[in-house]
Amino acid sequence: MLRPQDPFAAIENIYTPRQRHVLLIASLIGLGGLMLLGLVQYLTAFLGAGILFVMFRPWWVALVHQRRWNRRLVAVGLLLVTVVALIIPFFALSTLLIDRMVAFARHPERIMDVLHKLENASGFQIVGKQNVRELLQQAARQVSSWVPTVASGALNFLVIVGLMLFTMYYLFMQETYFLLGLRRYLPFRGETISELGESLKNNVNANVLGQVLVSMVQSILTGLTLWIFGVPDPLFWGVVAFFMAFLPVLGTPLVWGPAALYQFSEGATGAAVGILLVGFIVIVNVDNLLRIVLAKRMGDIHPLITLIGLVLGIEIFGIVGLVVGPLLVSYFLVLMEVFRRENRVARAALAAKSKGIAGESPGADA
User: Does the keyword Membrane apply (predicted)?
Assistant: First the structure.
């Protein structure tokens, strides 16, 4: 059967091939930007799925590729591990933290009592009641914007978690197509993609697995220390120490330092000195030792990269920025190194070509 001829086939297109190529790229970028704009409120779900994919992939390789277990069962098992071991505890801790901060913001009397006692002991006026209330309210709002909780919107929470789990399931079930697609469509050489993949693995290991382990140890040590020396609510302050431990340099001293001041204001000088001694001798040294050991095993990330990445990532992506922020900084540095290497190769090729032309010139003249 003959196909009907397209009546518009003979009409000449006004664009050159190069212009069509540029417009095609612009169209792809524009459509991709619109899609990203529409999904921006759920971007943390996709980022979280990618991070969990990298984190659990060694388990996937060991169980599916090496032991030949059923792919679907392993994928569902990893989803269950994610929900039970990560999502439920994390959101429970974050909800406890935000609820308690909101309570402090509404009723700052206990904090004001401590400040008045410190003022009487030191002879200096620290801050007024209104300023304390405003500071607590700002802190509560800031942490609420960083850490999503069930109380902040059950529907949004369920959508983000569900989308993250579905994306994670798809990444594992379609692992081969996903990895081939990255190789095919990313505008980088194979060695550059390998460097970016290694940087991603190092960041996930250092800022998820390693940092969570360090934060848990410091949280337990801080909570036990405060409980032993009679500080009220040691469980709550242990949870605060878990989140503060993600901050390089500062970390848990932001928790046990004020706790020592609280005990000093209460007249328990011995307890205050004990908290400071345990903090400086035990907690800080355990932190440094664990970071050195884990840096060699889980990815050596410079503390400055982590610090800049945390400030950048948390402000843009919320709690997922703990990993995404340092990853962005690491990717920037990797691409800068790739750019330097590509320019060096291009200059070497140009120099070799110039020498070749110069070497051929006398023969041509002869």
Answer: yes
